[in-house]
Amino acid sequence: MRYAHKTDTTQSAIVQAFRQAGWSVQDTSAVGGGAPDLFVAKRGVTIAIEAKTGKKKRMNNQVEWAESWRGLYVWGSDPLVLLELAEAMLWGHEE
């Protein structure tokens, strides 16, 4: 049985924060299977983001997806904290 697609309430604020900071944003929240809600990219660096609301935890399939991913991955609910983490990951990558 497939359940209706739901996005976390913080996702739109996360998308807005990244776009305002010059990041490309791809919404992948409808993919399912534990895949992250968003992919963001800037200066050749791509980061997978799992958006959460409040203190919600990741589901088992989301944890499994993240553990198998060989790229950059962050999760959380605060757009500014996520943006700060992502910007820190850009260090050493030239424009």
Poorly predicted parts: none
Whole-number mean pLDDT: 90
Largest sheet: 4 strands, mixed
Helix count?
3
User: In one word, what is the shape?
Assistant: globular
State Rg: 13 Å
Task: Name some characteristics of this structure.
95 residues; alpha+beta; Trna Endonuclease, Chain: A, domain 1; four-stranded mixed beta sheet; 3 helices; 4 strands; 32% helix
Tell me about this structure.
The chain is of the alpha+beta class. 20% of the residues are buried. The chain has three helices and four strands. The model has no long low-confidence stretch (mean pLDDT 90). It has helices at residues 11-20, 60-68, 79-89; strands spanning 24-27, 38-42, 45-51, 72-76. The termini are far apart. It has a single domain, classed as Trna Endonuclease, Chain: A, domain 1. 32% of the residues lie in helices and 22% in strands.
Quick synopsis:
The protein is an alpha+beta fold. Helices cover 32% and strands 22% of the residues. It has helices at 11-20, 60-68, 79-89, and strands at 24-27, 38-42, 45-51, 72-76.
